[in-house]
Amino acid sequence: MKKPFGRSLCIASLALILALTFVACGGLSQSSSGSSSTVVHLGYFPNVTHAVALVGVARGTFQSDLGSSAKLVTTNFNAGPALIEALFANEIDIGYVGPNPAINGYVKSHGEALRIIAGAASGGALFVVRPGANIKTPADLAGKKIATPQFGGTQDVSLRYYLQQHGLKTADKGGNVQIVPTDSANILTLFKEGSIDGAWVAEPWGTRLLVEGKGQLFLDERALWPGGKFVTTNVVVRKEFMDQHPDLVSKFLQAHVDTIQYIKSNPSSAQSIVNSEIKRITGKSLPGTDIARSFTNLDISYDPLVSTLMASADRAYALGFLGSSKPDLSGIYDLAPLNQVLTKKGLATVSGS
Prior knowledge:
Elements: H1 5-25, E1 28-30, E2 36-44, H2 51-58, H3 61-66, E3 70-76, H4 80-88, E4 94-97, H5 99-108, E5 114-123, E6 125-129, E7 145-148, H6 154-165, E8 178-181, H7 184-193, E9 198-202, H8 205-211, E10 216-220, E11 231-238, H9 239-244, H10 246-265, H11 267-282, H12 288-295, E12 298-300, H13 306-318, H14 336-344
Parallel strand pairs: 2-3, 2-4, 7-8, 7-9
Antiparallel strand pairs: 1-2, 4-11, 5-11, 5-12, 6-9, 6-10
Helix pairs in contact: 2-10, 2-11, 4-5, 6-13, 8-12, 10-11, 10-14, 11-12
């Protein structure tokens, strides 16, 4: 009797097509029980200003609240522009990032790529100078070399705007203040070597420059904002992911709020967790006193402090980062899911204005 080669070939071909289709989809992973789960790609920095992400990942709060139907996969970044590029490439679904990269990503994508769905931190940005650089006043910054974590990042924009407000120009604009965008770990090394005169960085790097680099505090950025409050870290979501998985976004925000409440109720434990996560990611922890000190320079909050982001956008536009015409940011926020979570928990909602 002849074997049904044609039928076998057909079945094999169909199986191959299905297998390739499954791989190409890329958004699902297979659990040990054989059921599929949605992969949620989370991006954040090993910074104290990203304490919510560090604590939420370490304690398993995000994964727990997302449930068994989702698998959390994390990626670490040095600065915001790199995270936004990863979001553009569909490599990140949800991210903790500063206001200026979020604004830039929104504008570049014509409002299509992302939404800000919550705040995460206020403050925590310091301008530290090397004692030997003799920087006492803004005028002393002329001819100096100052570092920021990345060109176009939140601290980079803050530094450039500060210089502009004090009549100074950067070297790329015909002036004599050289800005050196480099990753935070290298900033500390360059600072210790005397290769740079100062740096505008987020915590814990500000404290590390003060303690390990023997630097001097030139400016705590809180002094430049009304009430000392300004958004340093937001939670952004890829718009397509939010449209496809609104339930997972809501569950993530529940974990986000739960983690903030934990940090506020358990500061010592939270600081220890953050330090352990920084060591896990970077290979080096900080003295406990340094972590505690860095926490005093910021506030953990889910309030996105909308007005301060809009002010940051105005500054970025004045510096030429956002094109020739002032962008419309009216759709950059979607705070409805966060406010639904807050209402269910009996907490005060946040304003979108």
